[in-house]
Design brief:
It contains 4 helices and no strands. The protein has 124 residues and is mostly helical.
Length: 124
């Protein structure tokens, strides 16, 4: 079961690595003109502004609320990982529940560390 868990955790990293190799091999997407480059940059800027607007709360919350909102995803992910690992030590759990808990832990681990691993994979 541990081998399957490790393989499941490494599949997203392997898929991202293959995508990066293809982009490096083909040269990636290149705009054909300066106008296309400007439009692509404007679209990226608009996307980032929309994401930033979603994260702005209405009014002025307390600092602890701001801190909690900023760390809620990471607290949740670490909790899921802890429950997934803890499920290995509860012998009364059905096998399906254990497998589901470990898969959830894999997903949370990928959220916390997968993008960092994939982003730094080609930077050597």
């Amino acid at each position: 079961m541990i081998v399957e868990t490790l393989i499941g955790a490494l599949v997203p990293v392997a898929a991202e690595s293959i995508k990066q190799l293809i982009v490096r091999w083909t040269g990636g997407v290149r705009p054909a003109s300066v106008d296309e480059q400007i439009r692509l940059m404007k679209a990226e800027s608009d996307r980032l502004q929309a994401l930033a607007a979603l994260d702005q709360p209405g009014g002025t919350p307390s600092q602890w609320v701001i801190d909690l909102r900023a760390s809620a995803r990471y607290i949740g992910a670490l909790s899921v990982i802890a429950v997934g690992i803890g499920s290995l030590y509860v012998s009364e759990l059905p096998e399906l529940v254990r497998i589901t808990a470990l898969e959830a832990a894999n997903i949370a681990f990928g959220f916390l560390f997968g993008s960092r691993l994939a982003a730094n994979w080609g930077k050597k």
